[in-house]
Amino acid sequence: MPETMSKILKSIRNSFLILILLTTNIFSKDIRLPKDVGSGNTYSKSLGSGFKKYGYTIVNKKDGNPVRSGDKSIKFEVRLGDCGKDKPPGKWNDCKNDRQRHELSGERFKGKVWYAYSIYLPKDFKSVYPVKSAMAQFHQKGSWPSLMFQFTDMGYYADRQLGYQTQEMKKLLDTKDMIGKWNDILIHGNFTSKEDGFYKIWVNNKLKYEYNGATTGGKESYFKFGIYHTKVSVWKMYYPEDVFPTQIVYYDEIRVGKSRESVTKNLGN
After folding, report:
1. What ranges do the domains of the chain cover?
2. What is the pLDDT of residues 28-40, one digit of tens each?
3. DSSP conformation letters of 80-144
4. What is the end-to-end Cα distance of the chain in Å, rounded?
5. pLDDT of 87 higher than 60
6. Angstrom distance (rounded) from CA 58 to CA 75
7. Would you tell me which CATH number, out of the four given (2.30.130.10, 3.30.1510.10, 3.10.25.10, 2.60.120.200), belongs to the domain 31-264?
């Protein structure tokens, strides 16, 4: 083989290997929650850079932290300016789009699945409303979120979306029932673009929302949880003299499975 051709093939091979490494780095899920806290999924940090060390931490009951079951839970914290961005070749930038967050993103999936998580807001929790606050969501690869869980001054809502537009908002909990209390959220869904799709959402073992019909645009879905703020600048329009509050939210029993019992067995449901 001529030396020039050999060099060309070697260059192509090296470029291909670099592309594989970059792709693996972008989409790898290397965070496995302690069995005490979660199961059935692995996660990565939201976006590619800008995730602070305090963004999420595994905490212990022995240190005075709230725990739903067992001895550990996850503490998320978002302070003003906690915006990140994609690593190349991704182009998204929270900082340029008036957003901030600390979330963990799970593996992609399609079809029927059971998801569960428990959420706790500390007694000194401060709302940032009218800034939009998402505390857990189902998103699609490279597309719109299909089901978000939004927190407002009025409570916790299931926000069913289609094509980046809210189709229905269903209140799940009053704000007063979230402060200083654990609440168990259970979702059974068929994530599909077909008409046999559905959502069922239970809160503390009571069915609070049910929908039948297409739930996605056909792309793979993935679950994200933590704290996500949209339109952060709105805060100053309403409260020009106030300091933007730091928010802390705890999660526990974040489980994924093929049956209800597999994701709620530690809760006695």
Report:
1. 31-264
2. 579 999 999 999 9
3. TT---BPPTT---BGGGGTEEEEEEE---B-EEEEEEEEEEB-TT----TTSEEEEEEEEETTS-
4. 68
5. yes
6. 6
7. 2.60.120.200
